[in-house]
Amino acid sequence: MLSTVWLFYRNFGFFTHAVAWGGWLLAGVLVGEAFWSFIAPLFWLKLVSFGVVWYFMQTFSQQVYIFYQNLGYSIPLLFVGSFGLDMILFFGLISSVEWIILLF
């Protein structure tokens, strides 16, 4: 399942990460206590960016889903799995960057 979700996520993962990293940079590269208070807005920003991705994929590229449906995966399952993967990757990376910034 994870490899299928990763394959699906690669189609739009760069866009969702770019939006979230841009939001973090526009907020002023928050670290420390300010970073932890900014987690909720980052979550909502990622959720909105996934909504935009879902809308554009439903509108312009529904044929992409045929491959995954033939494997037995539903569209909502793919989006929920890729959203979870995206959250783990992004917040893991941003926590690592915050830790490095605080060290130096």
Describe the structure in brief.
82% of the residues lie in helices and 0% in strands.
| Overall mean pLDDT | 87
Helix tally equals 6
How many independent structural domains? 1
- DSSP strand tally: 0
Structural class: mainly alpha
Low-confidence stretches: none
> What percent of the residues sit in helical stretches (DSSP H or I)?
over 70%
Order of helices and strands: HHHHHH
Distance between the termini: 39 Å
Sheet of most strands: none
Question: Cα-atom Rg, whole angstroms?
Answer: 15 Å
- Tell me, briefly, the overall form: elongated
Strand percentage, roughly? under 5%
Describe the structure.
With 104 residues, the chain is mainly alpha-helical. The chain has one domain. Helices cover 82% and strands 0% of the residues. It contains six helices and no strands. It has helices at residues 2-9, 13-26, 33-37, 39-60, 64-70, 75-103. The protein is elongated.
